[in-house]
Amino acid sequence: MPTLSVLFSLLFACTEAPAPPAAPRQAPPDAVRVAQAGQESPLASPDGRWVAKVPLSAVPGREFATWWLPEIADADGALHYADPEGFPGRFNVYWAWDAEDRLWLYETDEGGLWVFAEEAGQWTRRPPREGEAPPESIVARRAR
After folding, report:
1. Which of 18, 56, 114, 129 has its CA 20 to 30 A from that of 89?
2. How many CB atoms lie within 10 A of CB 36?
3. pTM of full prediction above 0.90
4. 62 or 3: which leads in pLDDT
């Protein structure tokens, strides 16, 4: 019998406790989700004059924890527009520039389509006007 107890002692002494499970990796709140085509940030306009960023940021005191907050800067990095409203981060948004240096944004929550355009020297956010057509990448995303 002493042999059996020695074997059990050795068996338990050599067994390592399992490592605790790793904590899930979380992105910082201001991280940009670029998980799918149409979410490239920063994204330069076709002529290179403008750069759009659409970060997913924490906004304290608002209904949802994170928000997509479009920004438009010039090629030197000077900020010309920061969207004060944004779009809830629990839904996806997709964006693309058109040939006229307008930034189009499609939000999946309500299927909304928005245009960010420089008009009279100032950037604005507005719905598309009659006769304006979004870039093909936005059309394709809306068709899904």
Report:
1. 129
2. 10
3. no
4. 62
